[in-house]
Structures are given as structure tokens and as C-alpha cells.
From TrEMBL, chains A, B, C:
<keyword id="KW-0808">Transferase</keyword>
<feature type="transmembrane region" description="Helical">
    <location>
        <begin position="78"/>
        <end position="95"/>
    </location>
</feature>
<keyword id="KW-0472">Membrane</keyword>
<keyword id="KW-0812">Transmembrane</keyword>
<comment type="function">
    <text>Conjugation of reduced glutathione to a wide number of exogenous and endogenous hydrophobic electrophiles.</text>
</comment>
<keyword id="KW-0007">Acetylation</keyword>
<dbReference type="InterPro" id="IPR023352">
    <property type="entry name" value="MAPEG-like_dom_sf"/>
</dbReference>
<dbReference type="InterPro" id="IPR001129">
    <property type="entry name" value="Membr-assoc_MAPEG"/>
</dbReference>
<keyword id="KW-0496">Mitochondrion</keyword>
<keyword id="KW-1000">Mitochondrion outer membrane</keyword>
<protein>
    <recommendedName>
        <fullName>Microsomal glutathione S-transferase 1</fullName>
        <ecNumber>2.5.1.18</ecNumber>
    </recommendedName>
</protein>
<dbReference type="Pfam" id="PF01124">
    <property type="entry name" value="MAPEG"/>
</dbReference>
<feature type="transmembrane region" description="Helical">
    <location>
        <begin position="16"/>
        <end position="36"/>
    </location>
</feature>
<comment type="subunit">
    <text>Homotrimer; The trimer binds only one molecule of glutathione.</text>
</comment>
<dbReference type="InterPro" id="IPR040162">
    <property type="entry name" value="MGST1-like"/>
</dbReference>
<feature type="transmembrane region" description="Helical">
    <location>
        <begin position="101"/>
        <end position="121"/>
    </location>
</feature>
<comment type="similarity">
    <text>Belongs to the MAPEG family.</text>
</comment>
């Protein structure tokens, strides 16, 4: 029974795997986005990173810090989703619901990055994308708790 | 053999699933706790978040920073537990030991949040709750390494 | 078929489990490294942590901040690897390739910590170790996406 749950022939696992892969690529991209901003603004946090003896370490460039805040928000929200999405898959949920929850998390976290760190869009764009993913992840967590508690 | 390890009929997996769900909910709650402190103290990190033209971005409110430090400590400790707890479950450990290790991590991380970010309790309350979870997680990691190395 | 993928008789899973265990221990060690630097430099972030009434909270010690940057870099890179490494294992990849990818991530992340937070080594030591792990993780993520998308 459970053995098939973690194979790509299970559409729920297939969808989770797809979105987890996409979100890992997105998160790794944040490091490159940070590096681009660091070179553009010549903002380096370590003495050994300074490209010229005239530069000094700097921690307060608003463009660098914005990308870093978006990246940290990913750590806080996407990484717990990886754990709970897998456990939710193992509770054998309705495929329709599960696939749409994974889509909601995946798409809203991509939108969150775009409106936070790529092109700044006025609120409530970021708040909305943040809450869609948060609510979907919390719903899965409560389903997982309910399945394990009884 | 291994197929039953990731089903809720395995009491070790059932316990891991329960505590992972509880800790994901707890971690998502840290975002709400941060938001509450931000609104209470009118401390916003992005220009687009300012509710009034009189406000300026602010990064040094001690109440906001305290919740953020507690949240970051969760990232550093709870997220590795999610990975190692699942792998430890797959090594088919003694149910009694494994369930109590998961309980120790779950309860001590909840206590850590309470004494750090909700009601500040003098040390060594935070240090103790921190080390209980750290030692339990490290023990599981060493068991996982030993199982995989030989 | 899939049931054997998550057993230690699968050399790919065995290797993933080993390196995940090693990297969890390494990450937990960052907390101890931070604590050592905090006590050495008497840099504490919370009033309740101050060991003497003469001390004040301090956030800008370069030795403490260096370890914290290395630790955050672990959160950004090692934690996504835990998720994608498991999913990659479930795609049943070539054992030779997969085992060497896991080794590359494990070894390069240990080197990253050594040259960043233990003995500072001039660039490009840190950049190289960073990119080896990033490229290996991104490769696995693209393989996972390809397996799930078609």
C-alpha cells in the first residue's frame, strides 16, 4: 500500500516532486541574485571578498538586504513545506486537493520572490503571495497531525 | 520490510509525523509572532510596507529582533531534525527510544520558543531547552551515520 | 520496486543517508562554534545571556558574525540538498553518478565551513567549494524535475 505512495506513478508524489524540484532551483537562484546585487553595488561582507584595496566590508546596502530578506523568507516557508509535503503525501490524500495545494505553494512562492526581490510591487502583492503559501502549508500540517494523532 | 516503516502503522513513523506536523505549525507561527511585533512597534523593513508616510524603515527594534532570533534558531535546529528524523525512522530503531527522542525534540523546541520569544525567562531555561533538542538530534544523526557506514 | 529504494541495501540511499548524517552533525557544530566565539569575545545578543552586569548586548563582533554567515549559508544550501537528495534517490539514478554527487556536496560543504569559519583562506577557496555543492544540488533538482514532469 504505502510503497506506491513514493513512486512517480502516484500523481500526488509526482506533483510534490515536481514542485519541490522547482522550488529548490528557485532557492538556489537566490544566492546568484544576491551575488549579482553584491557585485553591482560592491557590497561585500568579508575582507577576503573585497575586489580592490579601496573597498571596505559593507552590510547595509538596501538592494542586497532586500534579496537576503526574500531568501530568508524562503528558508522560513519553503523548507518546512518540503518536510510536510512529503509527510502529507504519505497520508494518501485526495489527489485533486493535494496537487492543487502543491501548485498553490509553488506558484505563490515564485510570485513572492518576483514581487519582493526582482520587481518591487506595492503591497498587498507580497502579503497575499506569502499567505497563500502559509495557509496551504499549515493546512497540510494540520492534516498530517490529525492523521498521526488518532 | 522497509515499506511498512513509512506507514502510520509503524509507531515510530507515526510519532515522527505527529511531532514534525506540530513543529511545522510552531515554525509558521513565528512569522505571525514577528508580524504582531512589527505592527505593535511599527517596525517595517521595506519601504512598501510602511503604513504611513511618516514612518521610516527600521531594523533594530529589540522585540522584533528577539522573535527573529528565535525563528532563526528554529531554522538551524528544527529543519535538520526533519531530515534526520525521517532517516532515523528508516533505520528501524527501537520504538521506545525513538518515540521519546522525537518527544524530547518536540517539547524542548516548544519550550525554547516560549522562554525566548513569548515570556522571557532567565537563563539557563533557554540553554537547557536548546541542548535537549540538540543532543537528541545529534544522537539520531550519529545512529544514522553508523547504520549507513557499515 | 520503490520500496527497496529507501533501504540501506540500496547503495544510493546508503550514501545519501551517510552524507546527510555527516552534514547534520556539521550543521549542529556551527551552533557550538558560534557559542565559542560568543564567549571568547563576550558578544551576547540577549540581555538574559550577559554573564556580568558590566556587559551590554552586542551584535557586530566580526568573529561571531563570520560564523553566523557560514551557518546561514549552510541553511541556504545544505537544507535544500536534504530534500532534493531524497527525491533524487527515489528517481532511481545511476549509483555511480548519485554517490559521487552526494560525496561532492558533502565534502565541498565541509571545505566551505573550514575555509570560511575555521581558518580563513583567501578566495577563490570559498567560492569554489560553494559552487561545487550548488552545481551538484542544482543538477539533482533538474533531474528530479525532468523525472516528474514527463
Amino acid at each position: 500500500m504505502s510503497l506506491e505512495l513514493l513512486t512517480l506513478s502516484n500523481p500526488v508524489f509526482k506533483s510534490f516532486t515536481f514542485w519541490a524540484g522547482v522550488l529548490v532551483v528557485k532557492m538556489l537562484g537566490m544566492s546568484l541574485l544576491t551575488a549579482i546585487q553584491r557585485f553591482k553595488t560592491k557590497t561585500f561582507a568579508n575582507p577576503e571578498d573585497l575586489m580592490s584595496p579601496k573597498l571596505k566590508v559593507k552590510f547595509d546596502d538596501p538592494n542586497v538586504e532586500r534579496v537576503r530578506r526574500a531568501h530568508r523568507n524562503d528558508l522560513e516557508n519553503i523548507l518546512p513545506f518540503f518536510a510536510i509535503g512529503l509527510l502529507y503525501t504519505l497520508t494518501n490524500p485526495s489527489a485533486f486537493l493535494a496537487i492543487n495545494l502543491f501548485r498553490a505553494v509553488g506558484i505563490s512562492r515564485i510570485v513572492h520572490t518576483l514581487v519582493y526581490a526582482v520587481v518591487v510591487v506595492p503591497q498587498p502583492a507580497r502579503a497575499l503571495s506569502f499567505f497563500v503559501a502559509l495557509i496551504a502549508t499549515a493546512y497540510m500540517a494540520f492534516q498530517v497531525i490529525a492523521a498521526a494523532a488518532f
